[in-house]
Structures are given as structure tokens and as C-alpha cells.
Amino acid sequence: MPPAADIADLIARMRQGERLATSRIVTELERASATMPAIVAALAPYLGHALVVGFTGPPGGGKSTLVNAYVAELRRARKTVAIVAVDPTSPVSGGAILGDRIRMTEATSDEGVFMRSLASGGHLGGLSPAAVRIIDAFDGAGRDVIVLETVGTGQNEIDVAEVADVRVVLSAPGLGDGIQAMKSGLLEIADVLVVNKADRPGANETVYELKSALSLRTAEPKPDVLLTSAIDGTGVQALADEIARIGKDKHNRHGADDRRRARARFLLKRAAAQLVDDALRDTPAATLRSLTDDILSGHASARDAARALLGQKIG
Questions:
Q1: Is the Cβ–Cβ distance between 75 and 113 less than 8 Å?
Q2: Which residue among 145, 219, 239, 269 is least crowded, i.e. fewest CB within 10 A of its CB?
């Protein structure tokens, strides 16, 4: 492990805007290397500044193109930006399939923007723990806004609700099945609903359908439904203004510490789930068979058997 002085120097260089230092720290956190705990501890005094904005929604809505347009709007306002783009996992290498980098060439060619693509790792909720650690790295680097773009797989992809300060849920005309999926999950986490590709036929009907779905939602306040076109910029300024307004309101009500605690809870939940997976993998087959037989015979509930399993492994 590098000396503490070397890590402090690396973080200082990152905070001065050195891209190589930023890339090094992000890579160490992504890999969860032996250096990670020391980096996390050294970053702690610098966290809580950035606004984290999550973009999610069914595939085909144009998330990457809209993120590119939103980032351009932020840069016009002289905000520094980082993008965490979660791509599908390659079945060959296990890494990210870098589709987002291809669609965001304008943003990534700007010195005021730093982007890292991550593999989803097969997580049904859309995010891996590495995404949260990298958000902290960009926050510690002093970026004003961190944009988190998820893969886009429908209603299961709601981890963004725990990680992002402002959640933008995207749809587009012609995604009828996507709207149906959103009603069951994504609508409940949205701070802003966006119908992208406003120039396409059916855009106004999609807005109406989303507003109708929102009428069934009991939680308040209900999110606005905005029309955008990432291609010609229609509605992008209004979206940027709405995100900034919601972000400021949440900061005033909850503060940076509460928002960081929400991300820590996400990491805790994922770590607990990993412990369960490890316990199942490491438990002898005979013990597992005995526990499952107890469940089948009615001598133990699944919950009791799980407690017995974890008690052996965690204590």
C-alpha cells in the first residue's frame, strides 16, 4: 500500500484538476484495491459538495444523448462535471460495453468533464458498489455536478433512488411497454419525468399517459413532466433549471450529510447481500441440505434457516 503522504499528494493533484491523478484514484476505487480504504479515509474531508443527478428509464429513450445535452448546458453555466455511465457487462471480459462513450464524444472532449464507464456487473438494481465509490471520488475532486446514467432495464432499476440526489426518469414516444414498466417502479422514485424526442409523433400523448399514471401516485410532491429533444436542445434548459431547483431544495431540507448517509446505506445493503452469498457458497453441502430439509418438512421457516446459516458464518 502506498504511504499516506503519497495518497494525500494524489488527492491534492486530483483536486487541482489533474486528469491522470483522477483516473488513478477512480481506478483504485473501482477495483476495490488494497489502497481503497486509505483513499476513502483521505477523501472524507472533501465530500458533500457535488450534486448527484441520476438519469434512468427504459432503453430507447435517448438517455446518453440527453445527458450529453444536459452536460453541455452545465458547461455553459461554467459548472464542472463528472459522468458515471453504467453500461451493460460484457459476457466475454466482464467489463463495460462502452456504448455511452461513443454517444457522448462531445462531453468527453471537454476538459471540464471527466467520464468513467462502469460495468453493471449484473446487478438487477442497475448499480454496483463501485459506482458509489466513484461518485465519492468525483465529489472529492471538487466537481460541481456528478451525472449518473444507468443501463436502463425497466422497473427493477431503482438503485438510483438511493444514490442520486435528483432522479430523472426518461421515456420517449413509442415506448408503450416501457411506460407500463415504469408505472410499477420508476414512477415512484422520479423527481423529474422527461419525455425525450419531443419532435416524434405521439410525444404529447406520452406526456398525457405519464400524467395520468402520476394521478394514481399518493406521494407528494408529484414530479413535473417535461418535454425535451436532445437533438435540437428543446426543453434542455428547462430541465437543467428544474434539476437545480430540486437539488437546492433537497440540500436545504436534508443537507450533505444525510445525502451521503443514503449512499452509505446502499453500500451497507450491498455488503450484507454479499455476505449472504459468501455464506451460501462456503457452507458445506450437507449443512445446506439439512437446512433445506428443515424448511421442506416444516420444522423451520426459511427465515429461521437463514438465521442459522448466517449465525454460523457471521456470528
A1: yes
A2: 219
